[in-house]
Amino acid sequence: MVGAKIRLVLRFWRGVNPGDALGLADKRMTISQRIDFRSLISWTASLSRKMGLICTRFAAGIMAERAFTNPYPDYNKSQAAGYFDAYGRLTSEFLHRINNKIRDLLQQMEVGLKSADPRDCTIYTGWAGIALLYLHLYDVYGDPVYLQMSHEYIKKSLNCLTKRTITFLCGDGGPLAVGAVVYHKMGNEKQAEDCITRLLHLNKLDPRAPDEMLYGRMGYVYALLFVNENFGQEKIPRHHIQQVCEMILSSGENLARKRNFISKTPLMYEWYQEYYVGAAHGLAGIYYYLMQPSLQISQVKLHNVVKPSIDYVCQLKFPSGNYPPCVDDSRDLLVHWCHGAPGVIYMLTQAHKVFKEEKYLTDALKCADVIWKFGLLKKGYGLCHGAAGNAYAFLTLYNLTTDLKYLYRACKFAEWCLDYGEHGCRTPDTPFSLFEGMAGTIYFLSDLLVPAKARFPAFEL
Asked: Binding residues for Zn(2+), per the UniProt record (predicted)?
């Protein structure tokens, strides 16, 4: 009974990060009060959908309520001159501002982490996320102090693994994968191999795991790919990765048949009995990976199964250019990496690369316009649902098109982040973590130093 009510609440609280989705209704309430509160929320949301109260104009108003009005003029050459030259190289002044802010935020983060949850091992909100940040800073700056810091944090993470969840972001896959890379870079191959062995054994941990990114099989696949990419060799056997991918494809085909989606799309996936669309829990995140060359999905499967499934997601697009949190949701209101255009854009850009069709790029450009207008979120500056995460969408488009307009937009979102804490944003539950808080903003700012190498952490390949 309680599980059913939780699923109902998730329909309303889409866009809230894992943990918040349940936690918002939990604070200062008894169990019976929580259930009543959740039921009321669910009933209200359900009623509003059935009555069709949300039109496009009203939805735009709701999106605007969740974001600050973008105060910046859009791209022109004279405006951009203060940030980069005609070749996309950042100016020395802007580089100086970014580097100074990174140092300042790192100091604040280290102080704040003294009160962080000592038992949170995850990439998303825990110690492994901080280890991943310092590993990235080591790659950017080459300072061995950052590698040592990464080592200290990954040791904390490996000492408190969940022993339940297999994924990179919210499970043991992330700490083990990052641990393997850190030990490898430190020259400790024995410890690195131990992490890899334990990572491979995770596949047997939960045969009923979902398929999505945060808690499911695709999040495990990313952990495997992360190791191979950072080792520069096939440390994880190709057949092991392909085996998991076959399970994901089979699961999607079975659910599409079982739930009568087969006439619309060959694949369908669910999480908590909802058909999520976005990058974190949904179709866009799964399809983004299924198109990756390193997964070696057959051309027949790509064109006959994956491509029509992507086209189905494209049909869900709102007139605004944004995407719904779920297949059956008519509310155009979330502009987050986890739900909405900032996450779907990665599926679209990858589809353009793989299938060479202009329609995918056209839709991706519409996503970018939505993000530019509604992407400075009141939720904060983080990766999952914040300005830094949304800015990565501009960088991925810049790297695909070389259009300086998108580099400019990323720089303006970075400028917003340079005024961290001055806009009246909501304080996250884990304010110094990688995906909710300050660590993610630092990661983005350091990625912007070399835009051509920028990749959304723990997701983009």
From this structure: 338, 384-385
- Among residues 363, 360, 437, 450, which one has the least CA distance to residue 410? 450
* Phi, psi angles (nearest 5°) of residue 262: -60, -25
Q: Could you give the CA distance from residue 394 to residue 94 in angstroms, rounded to a whole number?
A: 18
Q: What is the pLDDT of residues 386-445, one digit of tens each?
A: 999 999 999 999 999 999 999 999 999 999 999 998 998 899 899 999 999 999 999 999
CA dist 55 and 194 (Å) reads 54
425 is in an annotated binding site: no
3-class SS of residue 101? helix
CB contact set of 365 (below 8 Å; sequence gap of 6+): 397
- pTM for this one? 0.86
The pLDDT value recorded for residue 424 is 87
Question: What are 155's two structure tokens?
Answer: 């040791």
Return the structure tokens found at 457.
């952490």
What are the extents of the domains in the chain?
1-53, 60-115+375-461
Q: Is 201 annotated as a binding residue?
A: no
DSSP letter assigned to residue 88: S
Is 121 annotated to bind ligand?
no
Measured over the CA atoms of residue 382, residue 387, residue 393 and residue 394, the dihedral's sign is negative
